[in-house]
Q: What sequence folds into this?
């Protein structure tokens, strides 16, 4: 004596329209939960080094800004020779402001990269070069306003 097989219910409309499974995997559909990529791990050493370098960049920007204040002394020989006072003033202002602008850009980019958990230690290094270049640019503009005293 065997038991008869239970009668299968008729497929509903949703089951009938579902795509058939492909060989070697589950039915078509959204990926499984384990296929979602995990967040990147925090690189503690990178964060510490980046913060230390950002502090060093802040000190460098302050020193560059103080150095830029002394660019106003480029106008000292202007009593004897004709100077371009506007170029001296522009160079002097650039020497005081541009290092802080470079530092602000550096800090923002570094923080964004750290939030995204990407390597960021190189940003303050590039920022230090940008701070020094901004001061050099200020020196060039200021020097253009003072003619040489060639005899």
A:
């Amino acid at each position: 004596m065997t038991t008869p097989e239970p009668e299968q219910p008729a497929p509903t409309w949703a089951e009938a329209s579902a795509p058939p499974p492909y060989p070697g995997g589950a039915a078509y559909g959204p990926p499984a939960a384990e296929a979602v990529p995990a967040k990147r791990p925090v690189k503690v050493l990178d964060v510490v080094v980046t913060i230390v370098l950002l502090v060093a960049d802040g000190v460098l920007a302050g020193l560059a800004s103080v150095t830029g204040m002394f660019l106003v002394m480029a106008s000292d020989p202007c009593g004897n020779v004709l100077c371009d006072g506007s170029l001296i003033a522009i160079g002097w202002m650039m020497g005081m402001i541009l290092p802080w602008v470079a530092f602000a850009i550096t800090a923002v980019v570094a923080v964004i990269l750290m939030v995204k958990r990407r390597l960021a230690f190189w940003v303050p290094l590039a920022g230090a070069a940008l701070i020094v270049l901004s001061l050099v640019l200020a020196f060039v503009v200021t020097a253009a306003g003072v003619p040489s005293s060639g005899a």
